[in-house]
Specification:
The chain has helices at about 25-30, 35-50, 80-95, 115-130, 135-150, 155, 185-205, 235-240, 245-250, 270; strands spanning about 10-25, 60-65, 75-80, 100-115, 165-175, 210-215, 225-230, 250-255, 260. With about 280 residues, the protein is α+β, with helices and mostly antiparallel strands. It starts with 9 loop residues before the first strand and ends with a helix.
Length: about 280
Amino acid sequence: MAEFSPVPLTLEGSSLLHQFFRFDWKAWRATPSADRARIAAEAIAALKLLEHPAQATEARSALFSQLGHKGDLILIHFRNSFEELNQVELDLAQTALYDYLTLSHSYVSVVELGLYESSRKTWEAASAKGLEPNSPEFQAEVAASLQRASAAMAPRLFPAFPDAKYLCFYPMDRKRGEDKNWYNVPFAERQSMMHEHGLIGRRYGDVVKQIISGSIGMDDWEWGVDLFAEDPVVFKKLIYEMRFDEVSAVYALFGQFFLGVRLPVDNLAGWLEGKL
C-alpha cells in the first residue's frame, strides 16, 4: 500500500444546507390576525416551491419543528450546486415570515460516500494494468471507475427526503491531536476500523436512514450526519453502540446534536398558532 495514496476515494453528490432558526413569538403574537394569515399563506407557498423545485418529483427540502432551547425550526435543502443553495437562502429572505426568523446556526456540506472498502481494489486494478500509481494514466483510470460508481450510486448520492417523522443531525471530526491522530494511522488499519464501524450502522438499516455529508473546507467540522427514523429512541441506541466501536471511542469528536420533528409544509399555519 505504500505506493498508493493515504487518502480514501470518495463520491460526492447533492450540495446540502442545514438552516436552524429561532422564531420571534412575541412579535408574531403582536401582529394582527389578518396579517398573520397572509404571511403564513405566503410562506407555505414559498416553502412548497422549495420542497419540490422545478421538475423535482421527490422532496428536495424539508421543514422540521426543533426540540429544545437551540431553536424553533430546521430547514434542510438538497440541491445540485452551491449556487442553487444560495438561491434558496435568497428566496427565503424575500418572504415576510423571514422578518420573524433569526438564523441561529447553519451547516454547509456535500453528500459523501466514503470508499474505504473499495479504494484499494480500485487502485490495484489500475496498477494491474501496468499503470504507474499517481501517473496521469493511473488517475484517469481511477476517475473512470469513480464515474461508473457514481452512476450506480446515484440514488444515495442525490437522495430525496426519507419519509420519517424524526431527524437527528450532528457534525463530527476525526481526532488529529498529538496523542491520537486519525490521519497518521496507516490506510489498511483505517480501512479495517471503518469496516467494523459500518457493520453497526448496517444493523440499524431497517429503522434508521443515514445520510453522511462531507464538509472539510466548507464548514467548521469535517462531516455532518443526518439520521431519520420513526422512533427517536433509536438514535440514542445507534449512537451509543457506535461509541464502543474503536473509530468512535478513540478517534471521534462530536459537535452539538439537533433533534427535530417533521413538519409538513401544509401544517405550518397550525404551527404558527401553537399546534404541531
